[in-house]
Structures are given as structure tokens and as C-alpha cells.
Amino acid sequence: MLGTWLSIFGLPHVGVGLSHGIGHQLAAEFDMVHGVTSAIIMLPLVMEFTRAQTLPRLRVIADAMGVDTRDLDDDAAADAAIGAVGDLVSRLVSRTCTFLSRSASEGAPP
After folding, report:
1. d(CA 21, CA 86)
2. Whole-prediction pTM value?
3. Domain that residue 66 falls in
4. Is residue 34 located within the same domain as residue 68?
5. What region holds the Fe-containing alcohol dehydrogenase-like C-terminal domain (predicted)?
6. ∠ Cα 31 37 42 (to 5°)
7. Is residue 2 part of a domain?
8. What pLDDT sits at residue 56?
9. CB 19 within 8 A of CB 39
10. How many domains does the chain have?
11. How far is CA 30 from the centre of its chain?
């Protein structure tokens, strides 16, 4: 019990991102893994929702994802970042579902 309390004690004193906060609620309501709800499901949606406030940072994300943003304006760079993260999420979900399907068909617990 002490470990559980200590793990959450600092949370009220720091901010959590929108994706993280929504992910907690989805995970609890639908018995899903918190990391999946926070990062995989919510991240591209939250990036789109906050784009007006995060345009310069979205350009950095696009660059980190391998997009050449030199000739893009901020909105186009934001679209590229959100698209690149969405594509990554799609690939991760596809691979995860394939892995779980194989594991289940082989009798291993997922």
C-alpha cells in the first residue's frame, strides 16, 4: 500500500498532458492498457486538438519523424507531424494485433 501511495503522491503537483489524462480515463473505463490509450489511441487526436498552441513544436516533431520541413509553412509542417505520428501509430497497432493474433493461435496468453 505504501508503494502505491508513493507512486501517485506527486501527481497533483505536476501537470499531465491531455493525452495522458484522457488515457487514464479510457483505460479505467474500458479495461485497456494505459500506455495504449495514452500514446497510441489519443496522441494524434490531441496533436490535432492542440495544434494552434503547439505549431513550432509540431515542426520539430515532423523533423524528428524524418519529414523535410524546410519548404513547409507552420500549418503544413503540423499536418506532416500529425500524419507521421498517425502513420507510426497505425503501424504499431497493426504489428501489435498481428503479434497478439499469433500468440493466441499458438495457445500463448497475450
Report:
1. 19
2. 0.66
3. 56-110
4. no
5. 2-94
6. 145
7. no
8. 92
9. yes
10. 2
11. 17
